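Batch manifest line 210
LIGAND: PMT
JOB: complex structure
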Amino acid sequence: MKFLITAGPTREALDPVRYLTNRSSGRMGYALAGAARHEGHEVLLISGPTTLDIPAGVDFVPVESAQQMYDAVRDLIGGVDIAILCAAVADYRPVAVAEQKIKKHADKLVIELERTPDILGSMRSVFGFTGKLIGFAAETQDVESYAREKLHRKQCDMVVANDVSRADIGFDARENEVLLVFAEHTIPLKKDTKEQVAMRIIEHATIIKP
Ligand code: PMT
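JOB STATUS: finished
ARTIFACT:
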């Protein structure tokens, strides 16, 4: 089967040397790409900036911004059987990117932000993707119910939900503890390394009925 996996953070430029980003290390997405490859699948990994090594045998497309990730997914989704969107995509970006480095004249600086394109929300309705669609949900409260709401709203087959209020799992941690949320049931996975959690997610992803 052919997998498309997104990973890592995005960077939203403010000026030539500054950007807005988040604490995603890319580990969860890279572990998913490695696990899918290990199981013999063809894997396309679209990633924001990380310091990680690209898993062996994986096709790799580097991007920086949410818009670039959106464009890459739109252009490369053809022929994909299973898409797993694990990237921590910025929800907002600066409305204007300064051409020159912003000078520190005033005591306060107000930056206007606008929404970035919603990649997961575009998969069915805009890109016409008909394969298995797996989203992630990074939540700090009511993890399962928010994840199930996202599953329905974004027409996913499964949502992998993690509690990102915990420092020992989720963003920039070596381990994760997730709920696999489906329309009618939820499967909790025990806390483990991201590599082990990724193996379980790939197992479940391949047996979902589209
Ligand atoms: O990278 P690590 O350090 O290993 O950390 C892993 C992780 C915490 C980043 C990962 O496990 C995770 O939770 N990824 C999703 C992070 C996120 O942005 O969650 P969200 O609830 O804000 O977004 C929900 C879904 O929409 C995600 O599938 C996301 O990829 C997608 N999204 C979000 C915004 C946007 N503009 N387009 C999107 O497609």
